[in-house]
Design goal:
Keywords: Carbon dioxide fixation, Lyase, Magnesium. The protein contains 37 helices and ten strands. It is an alpha/beta fold. It has a domain at 726-917 and 953-957. Helix 23 crosses helix 27 and helix 34 runs parallel beside helix 36 (899-928).
Length: 961
């Protein structure tokens, strides 16, 4: 327990351990406290909560200490025995980092009961979760502080529009009008995806949000008097929230359905983004007015959103046509309800009695409050829209009856945004013309901006499907028509037939005929064809693009175009090939040249094309270094080819949160590292899994994220950058060749690798973690090649080896550094930002890697001597890679110039180390019980312990999949 006497007391009594009182003087902030102290042996909560630190790092220290103290007290109160084991485990792993042996911690943990493994793991996982909460809150605190200290609406930072615009004006190569034009025309579209990387249960996220809210309240009391009722209330609120967190079940017992997954994923739109987007745009407009003399146009959309949740069926049989229908209707319901609420607010606000002649004419009869009179029918129409959509959703659920939104009348309900935007623009013009511009630019402008950003469909759904599924569907059609087997035709025959059919206005098959001709149409083909029926039924703005994964030929693209035509799609979705493996990236130019040379295809795309670049699978296929160079060159070549064909090209970047899947925590620098002339004010990118929570979980953080993206696009467009020289390209080709050969020699060619991977990581067990609706593999059988990039990265992150990011890099760098090209490589690192960004990211991942932790897994889980020998070789390769990276960067230690990273690691690593030791023991016990009958209760308890350890490591590493 922990007792605090009243604040007038000269001394305070703290119990560091049961029955061990320590008398200490009233607390004063030490100069350099460490963060890795024990859970509840730090300070009195009241003292820590109200520490008036001189800097924000000190305040973060105080928050982490305080939360750790409260958690420790909660654990000690509920189970003192667990608390002692937590402290002993932490002490042993800490001694390893101070030069001791890690096996002591391993031996100690091996004596735990299954229940102890579970509870001790929960303790460390919760601490890391709370540390992350404190960090997120500190980021909000910093953003608030920056805003207060800034002279403009947006922060004066290099990666903010508040900093980029003034910096551009200082140069001689861009005018104010050019910047205004760029900001009014550029667009970032962020695509929310439900890849299974958000490991935190919704209930847990809600409780940590409560903790964060109490920390915010504590900030407002920092200058208050200690011991006040408000202070005590905040402290009790935090204790209650953490106690509730500790006593809650953080394990997801069931995989979410695809509909539940989509609802959870888009919740951020209604709870955060609906307000954050117009707030950011208002600040951007004010910044433009201040710096450039012109506001942001009311119709401009610098940021928009889309979603894959409910539309991405690639390898996920749970996303059916009816799932896509239901999710799109649910999104419409949410949008209509949000708009109805906003209109209600406008009715309350706009009590103004003077309106323009245009407004008065529309109302026909003179009224005392024209704006309210005008808006009441709008609100009623939105309410009818909600009622209609809810009935359509109920009908779909009960009887499977689908609604064709293209057949609906817009007299009684809103189908698309054109009528509503026209109505609101009329009010805006009226207010401006009658001297009420300030009112017009307030809530009304926010609602109009949201209409352009989200529309009546909230987030347009992309549909994604694997190319072979379309091939199989067309094969069923050609066999049904008696013209042969599409699947057996070569590429030239397919292209000829597809182009001929695209000019034929008659449909190939009657809609729904596949249901009555099962001898020709298998269930998989029927599902594909019904998906195109869904596209044909969807109203304007409901769907975004049709993404073809594993695209490798021109026929893959024409096939989707034909299937849309055959389904009678009125407003065809743009067809987006996704090039993701190394071979597909290298072949992309030939594929697109074939398509853009086709008059049939050109007549269908209005000289606009979107191409998706896959970062995850290309890195899994070839390694990070080779993949990044292939992605760079492919974008360059495609941009040049598009220009020669007169095509307006937009790249869609399929990046994950981790470096191994194309992610980069430094968004601004990452965008500027793209090849010159490949963005041109149009940038589409995925926001995946846990990154949605990190980047958009709070309105302040969401606004900052939107600001960074917008500023990066503006800076990229107006920052002169030269293309790599022929010598640089030759050197990159050399690095790439060495790297991919080294990477594949292990991952593809070494027969020891798959047994090692399966034994030394929790890859097999990851399927038990109920964090997504999608299976871990595209196919039920198969090896590493069939494993999705997400669990591939996830498994290596858990063991802290992070192999996919650095494997192959060391061989390439060492070879070149020791050759005559060594000086050129050093110059390339210092002078070319794209290469430097890649190497710095690899260095960061190496800094976060712990080969000795991975060895714990090997020692306990790998029995094959050959696989064990491979593990030793991999660790030697890691050391060689670290040495080569340090030689290139000139650093003495990894990421020595990244104080924020190192500080975060110093906090988390001691606790993640404990979780890794626990996880290896849990895996050992689980695998021993794998074929043992009658041990279901033990298996369940150990599975829970495994899930919690996986969750905790993911929180500690701040990377999952």
């Amino acid at each position: 327990m922990l007792r605090t006497f009243n604040n007038s007391s000269k001394f305070r009594l703290l119990f560091l351990r049961p029955n061990r009182p320590v008398i200490c003087r009233a607390y004063t902030q030490p100069s350099a406290p460490t963060l890795s102290s024990k859970f509840s042996s730090i300070h009195d909560p009241l003292d820590t909560l109200h520490t008036k630190a001189d800097d924000d790092t000190g305040r973060l220290r105080s928050d982490v200490r305080f939360l750790g103290t409260v958690l420790g007290n909660v654990i000690k109160e509920t189970d003192p025995n667990v608390y002692e084991k937590v402290e002993r485990t932490r002490s042993l792993t800490k001694s390893w980092r101070d030069g001791g042996a890690l096996h002591q911690a391993k031996d100690y943990v091996s004596l735990f009961s299954d229940e102890d493994l579970l509870k001790v793991g929960r303790s460390f996982a919760h601490f890391l979760r709370l540390a992350n909460t404190a960090e997120a809150h500190n980021r909000i605190r910093l953003l608030n502080s920056t805003t207060l200290n800034s002279s403009g609406p947006l922060p004066d930072k290099k990666d903010s529009c508040g900093g980029v615009i003034p910096n551009l004006l200082k140069s001689d190569n861009v005018s104010k009008s050019e910047i205004v034009e760029a900001l009014n025309s550029q667009t970032v579209q962020l695509i929310l995806t439900a890849h299974p990387t958000e490991v935190n249960r919704k209930t847990v996220i809600a409780k940590t949000a409560t903790v964060q809210a109490h920390l915010a309240k504590a900030d407002t009391l920092r200058s208050g008097v200690d011991g006040s009722y408000a202070s005590a209330e905040v402290e009790e609120g935090l204790k209650s929230a953490i106690q509730s967190l500790w006593l809650s079940d953080e394990v997801s017992r069931f995989k979410p359905t695809a509909v539940e997954e989509a609802a959870r994923g888009t919740l951020v739109v209604s709870t955060v983004l609906w307000n954050a987007v117009p707030s950011f745009l208002r600040k951007l407009s004010a910044t433009m007015q201040q710096e450039l003399g012109a506001p942001l146009d009311l119709t401009s959309t610098p940021v928009t959103f889309g979603s894959w949740m409910g539309g991405d069926r690639d390898g996920n049989p749970n996303v059916t046509p009816n799932v896509t229908r239901e999710v799109s209707i649910s999104n419409r319901i949410t949008a209509a309800k949000l708009l109805a609420s906003d209109i209600e607010s406008l009715i309350n606000e706009l009590s103004i009695t003077v309106g323009s002649e245009e407004l008065v004419e529309v109302l026909e009869d003179p009224v005392r409050e024209p704006y309210r009179e005008f808006l009441r029918p709008v609100k009623a129409k939105l309410d009818r829209t909600v009622a209609f959509l809810e009935a359509a959703q109920l009908s779909l659920r009960d009887s499977g009856e689908a609604t064709n939104f293209n057949d609906l009348s817009d007299e009684d309900i809103y189908i698309d945004t054109k009528d509503l935007t026209a109505e609101l623009h009329l009010l805006h013009r009226s207010l401006c013309s009658t001297g009420c511009s300030s009112v017009a630019d307030g809530k009304l402008s926010d609602v109009i901006r949201n209409l352009y950003a989200f529309g009546l469909t909230l987030v347009p759904l992309d549909v994604r499907q694997e190319s072979t599924r379309h091939t199989e569907a067309l094969d069923c059609i050609t066999r049904y028509l008696g013209v042969g087997s599409y699947q057996e035709w070569d590429e030239l025959t397919r292209l000829s037939w597809l182009q001929k059919q695209l000019t034929n206005k008659r449909p190939l098959v009657r809609r729904g005929c596949w249901n009555s001709h099962g001898e020709f149409f298998n269930p998989a083909a029927s599902e594909v064809l019904e998906t195109f029926d869904v596209i044909a039924e969807a109203g304007s703005g409901t769907l975004g693009a049709y993404v073809i994964s594993q695209a490798s030929t021109a026929s893959d693209v024409l096939a989707v175009l034909l299937l849309q035509r055959d389904a009678g799609v009125k407003s065809e979705l743009r067809v987006v090939p996704l090039f993701e493996t190394l071979d597909d990236l290298n072949g992309a130019v030939e594929v697109m040249d074939t398509l853009w040379s086709s008059s049939v295809y050109r007549g269908s795309i209005n000289n606009k094309q979107e191409i998706m670049v896959g970062y995850s699978d290309s890195a899994k296929d070839a390694g990070r270094l080779a993949a990044s160079w292939a992605q760079y060159e492919t974008q360059e070549k495609l941009a040049d080819l598009a220009k020669s064909h007169g095509i307006e090209l937009t790249f869609f970047h399929g990046k994950g949160g981790t470096v191994g899947r194309g992610g980069n925590p430094a968004t601004f620098e990452a965008i500027l590292a793209h090849p010159p002339s490949t963005i041109n004010g149009r940038f589409r990118v995925t926001e995946q899994g846990e990154m949605i929570t990190q980047n958009f979980g709070h309105s302040k953080i969401a606004e900052r994220t939107l600001d960074i993206y917008t500023a990066a696009l503006l800076a990229e467009h107006h920052t002169p950058r030269s293309k790599p020289s022929p010598e640089t390209r030759e050197l990159m080709n050399k690095l790439s060749e060495i790297s991919v050969e080294a990477y594949r020699s292990i991952v593809r060619s070494d027969p020891r690798f798959v047994p090692y991977f399966r034994a030394a990581t929790p890859e097999v067990e990851l399927s038990n973690l109920n964090i997504g609706s999608r299976p871990a593999k595209r196919k039920a059988s198969g090896g590493v090649e069939s494993l999705r990039a997400i669990p591939w990265i996830f498994a290596w992150t858990q063991t802290r080896l992070n192999l996919p990011t650095w494997l192959g890099v060391g061989e390439a760098l060492s070879s070149v550094l020791s050759s005559d090209d060594g000086p050129a490589l050093h110059s390339m690192y210092s002078e070319w930002s794209s290469f430097k960004t890649t190497i710095d990211l690899v260095e960061m991942v190496l800094a976060k890697s712990e080969p000795e932790i991975a060895r714990i897994y090997e020692d306990q889980l790998v029995s094959d001597p050959k696989a064990l020998e491979l593990g030793k070789e991999i660790r030697r390769t890691h050391a060689m890679t670290e040495k080569a990276v340090l030689e290139l960067t000139g650093h003495k230690t990894l990421s020595e110039d990244n104080a924020r990273l190192l500080r975060g690691m110093s906090v988390r690593n001691p606790y993640v180390d404990c979780l890794n030791v626990l996880q290896a023991e849990v895996l050992l016990r689980l695998r021993r019980l794998e074929d043992v009958e009658g041990k279901e209760e033990e298996k369940k308890r150990l599975t829970d312990a495994l899930m919690i350890s996986i969750n905790g490591v993911a929180n500690g590493m701040k990377n999952t999949g």
